[in-house]
Amino acid sequence: MDATLNHEEELLASSAGRVADDLTKGWEEPSEGSTDRAWRILADSGLLNLRLPEALGGGGASAVDAALCAEAFATRLSRVALVGPLMALEFVALSGGAGDELSELGSGARRTTIALELGLSDVMRHSDGDGIAFDAAGATQALMLVPDRGKWQLAVCQLGDEVPSADVSRRFASLSKDPPSRLAAFLDHAAFDRWRAFGLTMLCADMVGAMQAALNMGVEHARSRHQFGRPIGSFQAIQHLCAEQHVNLEASRSATYYAAWAVDGLSPADALVAARVAKAYVSRVSTQVVEAVMQIYGGLGQSWECTAHLFLRRVLADRTILGDDRSQEVALAPCIGGNGRQMSDST
């Protein structure tokens, strides 16, 4: 694969960043008006249904394109729901359904995100409402999976009240206790593996964007903050700290882009392995990067006024969703043999 972005991908990332900037302006607290506007803009820009087939009114874009958009939104710490809806609508694309109801989900006429287990470790697989909607700002319903004769049937569950979360830049909501409405759309196990690869990759892209924005903040502070008559960025300790985190960031980005390419370019099983490797690595180093930025800020970095803590909250939440680094390593152990299993158990 070509590891560099082509001109179209660079333009897409830039355009997504401009949309995120427009949506972020003036949005201090989500309101009905701001979320209505956000979903309209996402739908009109084509970002909401980016991955849906053209037959359903979507863009038919690659997973790399979707990752670039998620990364661009994360660098702005956007409160607008994008990763959750993209993960939900990937279900629609993989199910092969093409009815009017599915088209409405893709167009944003029905504001849909993804339903997760309360532990945030996996996609919902039951129908008793005991779960949580992820990235649910402005959403009214969430997609979930219900086991059905060896396959997974898509179902829609209505949302309840907002659920408090450490990640204050995103909305989480409870699920209604009412039985979900089943759709005429199914996923087999291979399609579900491909969806998990996509979901893990989107979370990695979100963490990469948060890391990039946080590190940009730290570097700018190191340039402007003076101690002993010199910018603190001139001190070797700060330089080394920034350089180490830049290496972590770029390694995370490379792993994420490869996993995104694998979603479309490899078999479901191989794509899932690539996504698990990326999630395991990015989950671990993302906290190191943002915590290092907080160290660069010194005492200010531990205060509410310094927005670095918002990025830390974001990556800590993303780290747990669909399984943290430890759970990914455990899942990967059988794929890499006895030595890999021993390494994972001793980590």
**CATH superfamily heading of the largest domain:** Acyl-CoA dehydrogenase/oxidase, N-terminal domain
The domain tally reads: 2
Taking the sheet with the most strands, its summary is:
5 strands, mixed, barrel
Q: SSE order, as H and E?
A: HHHHHEEEEEEHEEHHHHH
The name of the CATH topology of the largest domain is: Butyryl-Coa Dehydrogenase, subunit A, domain 1
Strand order of the largest sheet: 1-2-5-4-3
Residues in β-strands, percent: 5-15%
* Amino- and carboxy-terminal Cα gap: 31 Å
CATH class term of the largest domain: Mainly Alpha
Low-confidence stretches: 338-347
Total of DSSP H or I helical runs spanning 4+ residues:
11
Which word captures the global form? globular
Radius of gyration: 20 Å
CATH architecture of the largest domain: Orthogonal Bundle
The overall strand count is: 8
Helix content: 55-70%
Note down, in words, how this protein is organized.
There is one protein chain. This protein is an alpha+beta fold and 347 residues long. It has 2 domains: 7-187, Butyryl-Coa Dehydrogenase, subunit A, domain 1 (Orthogonal Bundle), CATH 1.10.540.10; 191-346, Butyryl-CoA Dehydrogenase, subunit A, domain 3 (Up-down Bundle). Helix content is 56%, strand content 13%. It contains 11 helices and 8 strands. The protein has helices at 7-24, 32-45, 63-75, 83-95, 100-107, 189-224, 236-265, 268-297, 308-320, 325-332, 337-346; strands at residues 112-117, 131-134, 141-148, 151-163, 172-175, 181-187, 226-227, 230-231. It has a 5-stranded mixed β-barrel with strand order 1-2-5-4-3. The longest helix has 36 residues, at 189-224. It is globular. Residues 338-347 have low confidence and may be disordered.
